[in-house]
Specification:
Strands 1-2-4-3 form a 4-stranded antiparallel β-sheet. The chain is α+β, with helices and mostly antiparallel strands and 107 residues long. The relative contact order is 0.22. The chain contains 3 helices and 4 strands; from the N terminus they run H-E-E-H-E-E-H.
Length: 107
């Protein structure tokens, strides 16, 4: 039950991210509980290593969720969102989605 719920939360966040292609690039299909994506600049360009680092710093300062950096195939720098808590529910999708968007607004 816990694993299925975490995978469902990751899938929901992946759909939200994919639906905002003007702000985020989903870099891999969401298969289990991990979402890899890159924030985009205001001009719609990939944020790159420094942009991803600034984005993750903004998320850490906000405190609603914690993501880690990664490098995807092809060398693209990305944010890695791993859903892996027994306390995570679908209510966390909205909280996390708001935090992801807010962090992009403040960098």
């Amino acid at each position: 039950e816990i694993v299925e719920r975490d995978c469902d939360v990751a899938a929901a966040l992946g759909r939200l991210i994919a639906g905002r292609a003007d702000r985020f690039a989903l870099l891999a299909p969401v298969r289990l509980n991990v979402v890899c994506f890159e924030p985009l600049t205001r001009e719609g360009a990939p944020a790159g290593r420094l942009g991803v680092a600034a984005y993750l710093d903004a998320l850490r300062r906000d405190g609603r969720c914690f993501l880690t950096p990664t490098v995807c195939l092809g060398g693209r720098h990305a944010a890695r969102l791993a859903v892996s808590s027994w306390r995570t529910t679908m209510a966390d999708v909205d909280i996390t989605w708001r935090a992801l968007q807010h962090a992009l607004d403040v960098i």
